[in-house]
Amino acid sequence: MRRIVAMVRIRFLIATVCLGCSLILAAQDAPPTGEPQARTQEELDAYLAAVGQQDLAAAEAAVDAFATQFPDSALKATAYVQIIQRLQAANKPEKVIELGRKAIAADPKNVLALAVTANTLAENSDKAADQSARYDEGLKDADAAIEVINGGGYITSAPEDRLARIKNALLITAYGSKGMIYTKRDDSVNTEIALKKAVELNQASPDPATLMRLAVAQDKLKKYRDALANVTAAIEAARAQKNSQLVAMAENHRVRLAALVAKESPTSSKKARATKK
Questions:
Q1: Percent of the chain with pLDDT over 90
Q2: Which phi and psi angles does 24 have, rounded to 5°?
Q3: For tag attachment on the chain, is the N or C end more exposed, with fewer CB atoms within 10 Å?
Q4: Arithmetic mean of pLDDT, 211-239
Q5: Dihedral sign computed on CA atoms, order 50, 56, 58, 61
Q6: Phi, psi dihedral angles at 38 (to 5 degrees)
């Protein structure tokens, strides 16, 4: 099956999360548990100067310098995530992975860094010499993101309703990344497990590529009825997005699945037995 590139994009969440941080400790306010903060005004000023660099290469170098100058800063991961947002917009996946790794090294529980790195590894490792290791890393990052979110770890100090949407989008991305990796490894069992979670969490805005990938996995597992239901949902979602290419692909798949389901039906079995008599 040709490569389907469609995942829940969370670039907007990076800015949302970073803007939600109170970056310097205010003596009169108790910060939310886990919220990253500068210890001094000097540290905060250095952080803002680094992430405020207009040139992307200069910003990356400035964040590295900030991390060296303040090795114990709680803002190191946040600084890298800010630059990752810009690298995504500039379509530089290898740089996203590189800085994602730095952010995770600085804060192994930074959910944004974990989810973005997992997603980027899932999408951009097909031709890598170390493909297997990158896929292992992507799975590890996705699982870590899921664990932090489900364990109530800190994400951002946003209002509850907004925070719930952010958590949901991050979980969809993490499970979707796992499903993509398992698909590429031809592991249909784990593909189905991961993508069923992603689909379940994304009822409000179904992703046709995820539904299609799930349907293919279920087809390989001979779960034809489930596969037919999901390929039909993929067609509806693709039509809503005006994705004619995916609609055509899914329609062809649906014809095949419908024929397989018809063969499985009790009526077909009775007819077959009657014919033999």
A1: 76
A2: -135, 140
A3: C
A4: 97
A5: positive
A6: -80, 145
DSSP codes joined into one string, 5-43: ------HHHHHHHHHT---B--TTSPPPTT---BSSHHH
Tokens of 127: 């031709």
Domain assignments of the chain as residue spans, ordered by start: 11-202, 206-277
The CATH homologous superfamily to which domain 11-202 belongs is Tetratricopeptide repeat domain (1.25.40.10)
Residues listed for the chain: 277
Question: Encoding tokens for residue 76?
Answer: 């190191």
- 237 Cβ partners below 8 Å, 6+ apart? 206, 207, 208, 211
**CB neighbours of residue 53 within 10 Å:** 16
Question: Residue 145 half-sphere exposure, CB side, CA atoms within 13 Å?
Answer: 30
Residue with tokens 């803007």: 19
33 pLDDT tier (thresholds 50, 70, 90): low
Measure the CA–CA gap between 256 and 277, rounded to whole angstroms.
28
The pTM score is 0.85
Give the pLDDT band of residue 267 (cuts 50, 70, 90): low
Give the Cα separation of 17 and 32 in Å (integer): 13
Cα 209 from Cα 231, distance rounded (Å): 10
97-112 pLDDT, tens digit each: 999 999 999 999 999 9
What is the pLDDT, as a whole number, of residue 36?
85
- On the question of pLDDT at 65 being above 90, the answer is yes
